[in-house]
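Project outcomes to date are best conveyed with an example. Our students and postdoctoral researchers have been running inverse folding experiments weekly, and each run begins with a structure described purely in tokens. The record below, which covers 185 residues, was selected by the lab manager from last quarter's runs and is presented without edits.
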């Protein structure tokens, strides 16, 4: 009797573990690719995109243009490829889903307000895991994204400036003037 229960339990575990066929897994990855494309992840997470020349060889490898949010700082789209050193390669699928749906990374850092995790929180669990499955299949890109930069910190990248209501670009802080060169003799 006991042996029968153990065999039954093992059979149930095996059935659950292997319930996703390779076709189901491929379909799940394809769904994730569709959602990443539709969600516009490429826009903020691929170098060159905001400069008009996306670097497809570093697809989703992290932006080179940041967003300035008054009072918070400047934030760049991070490397979301499975690179273990500069991307999300050490994150589990569950951690990716948690970040997508709650805005909190495995380290406890809260994602920048520009990241639309509030919208992604409405994904079904299956769709959120499809995104995670797809991201895990990408080519790892070794690209350390600078920042985030706190208010007042020197920014080392291009950035979009978000101005509060009532301000104009003419009122935005300007870089200090370059020192004049001494006349050449």
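After processing, the design step wrote out the following sequence:
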């Amino acid at each position: 009797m006991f042996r029968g229960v153990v065999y039954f339990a093992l059979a149930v575990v095996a059935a659950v573990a292997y319930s996703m066929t390779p076709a189901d897994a491929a379909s799940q990855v394809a769904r994730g690719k569709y959602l990443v494309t539709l969600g516009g992840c490429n826009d903020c997470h691929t170098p060159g995109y905001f400069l008009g020349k996306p670097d497809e060889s570093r697809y989703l490898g992290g932006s080179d243009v940041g967003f300035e949010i008054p009072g918070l700082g400047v934030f760049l789209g991070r490397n979301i490829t499975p690179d273990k050193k500069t991307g999300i390669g050490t994150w589990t699928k569950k951690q990716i889903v948690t970040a997508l749906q709650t805005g909190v990374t495995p380290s406890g850092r809260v994602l920048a307000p520009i990241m639309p995790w509030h919208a992604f929180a409405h994904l079904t669990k299956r769709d959120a895991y499809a995104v995670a499955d797809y991201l895990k299949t990408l080519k790892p890109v070794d690209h350390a994204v600078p920042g985030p930069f706190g208010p007042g910190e020197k920014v080392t990248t291009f950035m979009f400036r978000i101005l509060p209501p009532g301000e104009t670009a003419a009122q935005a802080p300007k870089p200090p003037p370059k020192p004049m060169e001494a006349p050449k003799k």
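Strands lie at 65-69, 73-76, 158-161. The helical segments are 2-17, 22-38, 41-45, 93-102, 117-120, 125-137. The training component of this project remains on track.
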